[in-house]
Amino acid sequence: MEKELLVYIDDQFYPKSEAKISVYDHGLLYGDGVFEGIRAYNGIVFKLKEHIDRLYRSAHTIMLKIPMTKSEMTKAVLETLKKNNLKDAYIRLVVTRGVGNLGLDPRKCPKPTIFIITEPMLQLHSPEVKEKGIKTIIAWVKRDPVDATTHEIKSLNYLNSILGKIEANITGADEAICLNRAGFVCEGVGENIFIVKEGKVFTPPISSGALDGITRTVIMKLAEKLGYEVVERNITPNELFTAEEVFFTGTAAEVTPIRKINERVIGKGKPGPVTKRIMEGFYKLIKDPKEGTPFS
Ligand code: PXG
Predict the structure, then answer these.
(1) Do 241 and 280 meet the contact criterion of CB atoms below 8 Å apart?
(2) Distances in Å between the alpha carbon of 79 and those of 11, 72, 82, 158, 254?
(3) Ligand 1 pocket, residue 251 CB under 6 Å
């Protein structure tokens, strides 16, 4: 039998089939916790520091004290990768409020649960689909508002995104786009979004309710380096439909061109020149040891 992958749970390693947490864990009972989705390319964890920093920021907002320093957390991630002999990997780092009773009061949870899953990278879309550009829909469900369970916090509350994803699935689209309460474009269900108009690159501000994506920041800097003006501002659905190019960014999505939105063809119906240049630049960056944390 093939050797099982090992999962880190609270300082110990368990084979995948035995990696379990309590049904009394508030991460499960209430979605009370935070997480990160991180990626390693060829023995380099891309932007690990940025992901660890964001994890601690999310925890700070929900008043969850992670019982580990950032450097211990970084070591635990690298150790899990090494134990599993993975060079290219998807890393899921989760901190929950921990085990409590059936009441939602977090004071009943004395110790947060920390677990780290590392697996060979999961594919969001097939390479052929990604090459052509994906088909999307604008979902009926509005993004959680910034004065509620906002997606600026990378919390375990993803039902808002899952409802969008279900809508994409049942309508035969590859992915969903979320609008906020005001009607402006916010982000994908697990991706940030960019449009290209007259050679300029636009993306919604974080104040739209989107996650401060690590890939988003990387792409904004890269686009500027490539000579494009990058502007953060509100984007309307009409601007999406009439943009020359639209693409998603994210740890899993990388840079994914969008070909259709609610059956409207975007630009020429295939990845445009700006998107292509940005994709090329991104594939160079992920190989650069200076852009991440080498571990093998
Ligand atoms: N918005 C949301 C709501 C996200 O969950 C992004 C934007 C992109 O952020 P990063 O930091 O990754 O550039 C995310 C990230 C998955 C998966 O399993 C989803 C994410 C990351 C990794 C895997 O679908 N979402």
Answers:
(1) no
(2) 11, 10, 5, 28, 25
(3) yes
Task: Evaluate: CB of 214 within 6 angstroms of ligand 1.
Answer: yes
Number of CB atoms found within 10 A of residue 184's CB: 18
Q: What is the pLDDT of residues 190-249, one digit of tens each?
A: 999 999 999 999 999 999 999 999 999 999 999 999 999 999 999 999 999 999 999 999
pLDDT under 50 in the chain at which residues? none
User: Max Cα separation, the chain?
Assistant: 56
Atom of ligand 1 nearest to the CA of 210: 1
C-alpha span between 150 and 152 (Å, rounded): 5
Whether residue 235 contacts residue 202, with contact meaning beta carbons closer than 8 Å, is answered with yes
What is this structure's pTM? 0.97
Q: Which domains does the chain have, with CATH numbers?
A: 6-120 (3.30.470.10), 127-285 (3.20.10.10)
Q: Which helix (H) or strand (E) holds 9?
A: strand 6-9
